[in-house]
Amino acid sequence: MNGVAATSARPRVLLVSARADTGGGPEHVHMLLRGLSGRCDFSIACPREEPYWPRFADVLGERNMLEIASRKLVPDDLFRLRRFMQERQVDLVHSHGHGAGIVARLFAPAGSTLVHTHHGLHFAADPAWWRRAGLLGLQRLLERRTALSVFVSDDEIHAARRIGLGGDRSVVVPNGVAVPPEPRTVETLPDRPLSVATVSRFNAQKNPEGLLAVLRELSLLGGGAPRFVFDVYGEGAERPDFAARVDASGLGGMVRLRGTVPNLASELARHDVFFSCSRWEGLPLSVLEAMAAGLPVVLSEVDGHRDILAHCSHGAQGYALDRPDTAAAALERLRDPEVRARAGAAARRCVDSRYSLDTMLSLTMSAYLSVFQSHFRTVPA
To answer: Which domains, ranges and CATH numbers included, belong to the chain?
Structure first.
């Protein structure tokens, strides 16, 4: 818009998110607000949803927030968003996620400096070919207007380039999480099952059918009482169907549906292992949070997980989606407390060295400054 004023020490950044419910994208935005508020003057446009609207308000105050609809285009929102940008004399607009990226990049005033973080290329997996083609065409057009496209993993930018996105004005800023100061204690399992955490939205991406396949394989290991109990966190439209299929398969003793929780990272630390059977990801915060807590992870070998599997091979084990027996074998090996302790410690070290919150914040601020250096004469100190 106006650029960074000569008298301003900090850039004015508007964050835009079409979500403020429980999820990795809103948590990522929350981390930016908390971590970079001393270096940027932030405001935010997002839905008035729990739990993140009040969390954002705790950092910014509601006077620096604009309410927009959740995951849909509302004409009045678009006009109010433009006016909000102009009134705040925003230097940079940073949109997060597919819906916010469309709104911010289509309707920002002319001359706006736009940064966009994809948080996964979900539109590329739309089952309707005509909608997928239309959304991809729109994304290619929007990228031309974007000063910098941010991808959260090497996997994500490679996937973007396969479909014609992720050009020269792109950068990888890996997701990051805080690492607890003390490692967790690994317990033996003489009288209890292995406690496995997983996170699902009960949709095609999170692959509840794949979880059922792994549960069936584990049930074949025998041994009387269940040797594994899966706590499934999250909500979604297919949750009732998943619960019915678990019961019909006689697997109810192995599954507890936990719904959403206010502080997932703390909850994950209570478990022994983290498991994900997703069909694709960006770079999932829940996996990184589990690893930071010292949990070994077993992951499907898909985009978003491959980045972790490549860099954290001692703390993360992969399996092919069509081989649930391989996933079951990996989980069975982790019943050994010594194996689990070594893998968990390696996972924690990997997150600390490659996926730390400090690294993510530093790279994000460097990305902001690179945009300012390209677009404005005056760069904030």
So the answer is: 12-176+357-375 (3.40.50.2000), 194-354 (3.40.50.2000)
